[in-house]
Amino acid sequence: MIAVDGRDTGLQVQGFENLEQLLIKVMEDKHLAGRIVTDVMVNGEPFSEIYPHQAEDVETAEIESVEIVSMPTAEMAVNITRELYKVVTLMDHGARRVAELFRKADDGEALEVYQDLLDVTRDFMGMIGVLRGEFSLKQNANFNEAAEELSSLFSEMVEVIENEDWILLADLLEYEFIPAVERWKKVVAQLREDIKEVARAA
Questions:
Q1: How would you class 45 by CB atoms within 10 Å of its CB: exposed for 0-12, middle for 13-18, buried for 19 or more?
Q2: Domain boundaries along the sequence of the chain
């Protein structure tokens, strides 16, 4: 039996050579239109790939049942915005930590944490961009201002790093980056509301 969210798809496990073929067919057949897969259960056990295309190595001869659990894309997006809110807090804490380390003249450690902060900020901005693109969200003045502010701030910080002026970098993080990051809480909250609106209209 192959089921999606408890409903039988009418497809038979024996009609496929391996698990990957089976999963691709279920996705093509519109059983998951507008939904994101959250779990795959094979013979009642959770399955997740440890390496790419591992599902191809699972022959259907070993499978009795496949249960796919999903949720609406918009619901997943709302959950992601909740996580993004936590990321904003992480960025705030990271900036404080970097500033503190530079003020203690622990430059090596500070630069390592600063690199982590850059990576987290880049991922954060990438995810925000994906959500806006995916949901054709309305132009948001707060978003544009917050994005421009962070962008120009990073340009300024690059120059400061080139000059190795660690105290000025600590000041920028503490007095400009942290307030800039704080403004993203409002943007993320607005994004969540926009996604809910798009979901209701769908």
A1: exposed
A2: 2-64, 75-201
Note the Cα 92 to chain centre separation in Å. 18
Q: In this structure, what token pair is assigned to residue 151?
A: 């962008």
110-156 tens-digit pLDDT: 999 999 999 999 899 888 888 877 775 666 677 788 888 888 898 89
Would you call 32 helix, strand, or coil by DSSP?
A: coil
Statement: residue 100 has pLDDT above 90: yes
**Secondary structure (3-state) at 7:** strand
Q: What is the pTM of this model?
A: 0.69
At residue 87, the pLDDT reads 93
Give CA–CA dist 15/69, Å, rounded: 21
Strand locations in the chain (E)? 2-4, 7-8, 35-42, 45-47, 66-72
Element (H, E) at 14: none
The pLDDT value recorded for residue 33 is 80
The H or E element that residue 6 is part of is none
- The dihedral region occupied by 165, where left means phi > 0, alpha psi between -120 and 50, and beta the remainder, is beta
Q: Return the structure tokens found at 165.
A: 């002026």
Residue carrying structure tokens 């440890």? 50
Q: What does residue 144 show for φ and ψ, rounded to 5 degrees?
A: -60, -45
* Cα–Cα dist 68/25, whole Å: 12
Task: Find the DSSP H helices in 9-106.
Answer: 19-28, 73-103
